[in-house]
Amino acid sequence: MSDLRTVRNVRLSSLADYAVVMMTAAARHCGGLARLNATLLAEQTGVPLPTAQKLVSRLSAAGLLESTRGTGGGFRLSRPPASISLAEIIEAVEGPIAMTACVEGAGRQDCSLDHQCAVKPHWGVVNNAVRGALAGVSLATLAGTPPTQMTQNSAPLRAEVIA
Asked: Is residue 27 within 8 Å of residue 140, measured between CB atoms?
């Protein structure tokens, strides 16, 4: 049994994080209308090329990117950035959002408490709340100017551009 004093954060996998970074970069290119390629996005984002290629494939399969082969080909967003949510990007890479394995579906029964767990029926509500929060963040929001950070005194911090 794990030590209950150990605090773990709920985090995205590196692959999901990279997918969000790449989709955000794609959205910044002419609102997602410009044709791009994995090499260009890998260079601009720092995502390793093999990983970028893998993600382009997954994001295309999920219908978030559309691709064209041949001269002038490449890929671009399949919809405007405002209509693509953070939840969709994460699910394209990770599958359905589920906080625990017992509610992922597909008959997974790898928990020894499954037969007596009183919390299991409630995880669906938690999963829906998490998915709803992620669905409320659009790719357009992520690709836009970051919100102003606030200090403890609620005075905005402004970044200065040094030329």
From this structure: yes
